[in-house]
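task queued by scheduler; priority normal; single chain, no ligands, no partner chains; default sampling; output format set to structure tokens
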Amino acid sequence: MWKFTRMLLVALITLSLWGCADSKPKEELKVERSGMLQATAIVEAVDMATRMVTLKNPDGSSFEFYASKKVVNLPQVMVGDEVVVVYAEALAVRMAKPGEVRDETMKGVARALPGDKPGSLEVIETTVTAEIEDIDKTNEKVTLKFPDGKVQVVKVKDPANLEKVDVGDTIVITITKKMAISVQKTK
């Protein structure tokens, strides 16, 4: 009897492994998206007493803004200079490694040297893990639970990615935001 039971058990294990070998493995989840915007304006006026700067958009409209004390090079800004703002954002999503839990933000700022035309670059990168709590393929949405306990429903841009994950999987989301502002002499 024991021999028969053991042979039956081996046969069942072999058949179940054989069935797994025939099933197609899931495609790896890898999402990468990015975008960039650029805007320019021409300096129309600089009031050093109030630190108000008037800029003219390409469409001819004007607007004012307050240049804080952090803009140490404001005296170098002249009427006719061009202000260029570039904003870029990138998103990356991948499967988490076993036991990987992340919830971190890194920031970096660089400013122009004293005496130069004003300029700055700011980079913020946030990386967080999220557990998939629900998948709604009909409405192309996924419910994510973050390490702080917050839950968020997200619309998926590419529905094919829903086939690459299961409820209970953990993903890593990295969002990188960059903004550069520079003042340049017009040519």
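post-processing summary
- The chain has one domain: 27-184.
- The radius of gyration is 27 Å.
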